[in-house]
Specification:
This protein is of the alpha/beta class and about 675 residues long. The protein contains 30 helices and nine strands. A seven-stranded mixed β-sheet has the order 2-3-4-1-5-6-8, sandwiched between helices. Strands 7-9 form a two-stranded antiparallel sheet. It is elongated, with a radius of gyration of 29 Å.
């Protein structure tokens, strides 16, 4: 059997999913969208699976997540629904529950966080609530693994026996009742033909769901009849259609909870959260604290914890490559084949894999911040600023991650609820300077701006942000038109993060990165090796000048002359930056016949290569042009289109060229 796990955001759904499945889960995509799907095998029932649907507040199909959830239930026809409800905020959570119950699918309600309810002096009469809702209600604590076995048993029983929700009518008198009744009768045949609950269909049509009207195949006369019934309901009740339906649901919830739920005056979790929020979301303290928290995360990731692990892994990979190189040499392998294995495959993939600790450590800290409830506050605090460029507060997290690495930053845009906001954020992220560009900055500031290196570095980061904002404004106006999604963000109580959830997220992101390294990145590394190794007649070259890569560099070099890059070696080095931005420095060192450590001194005394003006243009171009192949592969996946990813790459390269040209021309004036 297949179960759909549905619930609001921040209700403990991910924790429950991990308790149900353990490590027997995998991450994919729902068809046609980039919303992640998690599917897992239930631990105690190896033949049954559970699908973790996105956290939502309603089934209006207003966001991608709501559309995915609704379509999965309507089209995939799961055997049962496990609806997780936050018992500490039961009235609001039950609003989604009523919509699920009207779909006519066997359902069990998992009443989560019951330990907090009891601990704060509250109580819920489970039997009375079950009777009021017409479904089985099971009290659980997902974080403490309490009640999970009973939940599985009840869900299996309800699904196998096809026990439908007993309560179908959430109002029995009044204009809303009459409207729903008449529309249900009108669309009953249409709904049953596609195996949909007539009452659910009627409610959605009253709410104005035109897509559903098309799906049901309603003719113009039927649509007019429905609209007439809705107008009568609005006139008689004095509320518009959305408010009338919402009012009906909340009236039912209020009656169902009146004799079953006893709330504590104020939970200790809420008191604690309110006290913390005085600092973390305070008018004058929120932004400084946020900057401090993110600085700490990046310092730990790219300094104290992550970078040493990355260096250790890189050293291990280099040692392994050296051992394999020696073994192949002793074996007497053909030098070209050996070069393919060592310089193409192992060195290419190895250089990217060395970033794995950074990604794992970064997502560890971000997952901890997410689980504690702090990231919701970050989105809330930054929403007003980001709305000025057409985005919502949720976009701040991918932008911040972009300072470390574009790959996890682009992956993090999946938290955005709107397709437009997500694509706009994906466009913005690569303009944020990632840590892989630091070696380029270090070499060129040492060569041309030794006395002002920190100022130049800061200027580059700020310039990248400014260009990103302008690019986002341009994209929002001409490419991804529309307005940012209305910002609905619950500020959950602060809680201790779930170790299992943190571990599962780290594992998913690590595996995703490794899979990418051994597919797209491997192919790109082999292509670059081939271009560096052979000339136009496919003879092995003695030095880089005669290679196919150099030929490509010479071919495209006229494009870069207006930027002051008059030597073919400069665009050649930029091409290798496609595999990894660090490769720009190493390739340039090889092409000018020196080492990376000596490169600043060589560049300083090579006016035929760079002047101060062209060096500034080079820094701006490397800041803004297309990110590495790993980021492009992630782009392609997020856009679900090779053409879309190619369009983003072209847009970034053109933007980089224009900005570098302007900087070069202004620099020449001075």
């Amino acid at each position: 059997m297949v179960f759909a796990l549905v619930g609001n955001q921040n209700c403990g759904k991910t924790t429950l999913f991990n308790q149900l499945t353990g490590s027997n889960q995998h991450v994919g995509n729902f068809p046609g969208v980039t919303v992640e799907s998690k599917v897992g095998v239930i631990r105690s029932r190896k033949a049954d699976t559970v699908v973790d649907l996105p956290g939502i507040y309603s089934l209006r199909a207003y966001t991608n997540e709501e559309t995915v959830t609704r379509d999965f239930i309507l089209k995939n026809k799961p055997d049962g629904i496990i609806n997780i409800v936050d018992a500490t905020n039961i009235e609001r959570n039950l609003y989604l529950s009523l919509q699920l119950l009207s779909m006519g699918v066997p359902t069990v309600i998992a009443l989560n966080m019951m330990d907090e309810v009891r601990g704060n002096g509250g109580s819920i009469n489970i039997e009375k609530l079950s009777r009021a809702l017409g479904v089985c209600v099971v009290p659980i604590s997902a974080a403490k693994n309490e009640g999970i076995d009973e939940l599985i048993e009840r869900a299996a029983e309800v699904a196998s026996k096809r026990i439908m929700p007993a309560v179908k009518d959430f109002c029995t008198v009044g204009p809303v009742h009459r409207c729903i009744h008449s529309v249900t009768h009108l669309v009953e045949d249409h709904a049953e033909m596609i195996r949909m609950s007539p009452r659910f269909a009627a409610t959605k049509l009253i709410e104005g769901d035109e897509e559903l009207a098309d799906t049901l195949g309603l003719n113009e006369n039927e649509r007019e009849t429905i609209e007439h019934a809705v107008i009568e309901m609005e006139n008689e009740g004095g509320l518009d259609r959305m408010a009338a339906i919402a009012n009906m649901r909340y009236d039912f919830i209020e009656k169902a909870c009146a004799g079953t739920v006893i709330h504590a005056a104020e939970t200790k979790e809420h008191r604690r959260s309110s006290a913390i929020d005085k600092v973390l979301t305070g008018k004058f303290t929120a932004i400084p604290v946020f900057i401090g928290v993110m600085f700490l995360v990046f310092w730990l990731t790219f300094g104290l914890v992550g970078q040493p692990l990355a260096d250790l892994l890189a050293a291990g990979i280099e040692s392994l490559i050296a051992v394999i190189d020696t073994a192949l040499e002793d074996f007497g392998m053909n030098p070209v084949a050996k070069s393919l294995i060592v310089d193409g495959v192992l060195a290419g993939v190895g250089s990217v894999l060395s970033f794995l600790p950074l990604i794992v450590v970064l997502f560890f800290f971000l997952s901890v911040l997410e689980d504690t409830g702090y990231m919701a506050r970050v989105a809330f605090v930054t929403d007003r600023l980001l709305r000025k460029i057409g985005l919502s507060g949720r976009s701040v997290v991918p932008m911040l991650i972009g300072f470390g690495c574009s790959v996890p930053a682009i992956m993090a845009t999946r938290t955005l609820s709107s397709e437009r906001d997500r694509k706009l954020s994906v466009m913005l992220v690569p303009f944020v300077s990632c840590s892989a560009k630091l070696p380029i900055y270090a070499v060129f500031t040492a060569a041309f701006f030794p006395d002002n290196a920190p100022l130049v570095m800061l200027g580059l980061y700020l310039f990248g942000i400014i260009v990103g904002i302008l690019a986002a404004r341009f994209s929002g106006a001409f490419i991804f038109r529309g307005t940012a999604m209305p910002f609905v963000m619950e500020l959950p109580n602060y809680r201790f993060p779930s170790p299992k959830s943190v571990f599962m997220l780290m594992k998913d992101k690590a595996w995703d990165f490794i899979r990418k390294a051994f597919t797209v990145i491997l192919a790109a590394s082999v292509i670059i090796w081939f271009l560096q190794t052979f000339d136009i007649r496919f003879n092995v070259v003695e030095n880089g000048e005669g290679s196919l890569l150099a030929a490509v560099g010479k071919f495209i070099s006229p494009l870069f002359v207006p930027l002051g890059f008059t030597d073919w070696r400069i665009p050649t080095a930029l091409i290798t930056g496609f595999t990894a931005k660090e490769a720009v420095v190493s390739t340039l060192a090889v092409l000018v016949g020196t080492t990376v450590s000596e490169l600043p001194n060589v560049l300083m005394h090579s006016p035929e290569l760079f002047t101060t003006a062209s060096a500034m243009a080079f820094l701006v171009f490397t800041l803004l042009y297309t990110p590495c192949v790993a980021a492009v592969a992630t782009l392609r996946r997020e856009f679900s289109s090779r053409l879309g990813a190619a369009g983003v790459v072209l847009f970034q390269c053109v933007t980089a060229w224009v900005c570098a040209f302007i900087v070069y021309r202004i620099a020449l004036l001075f």
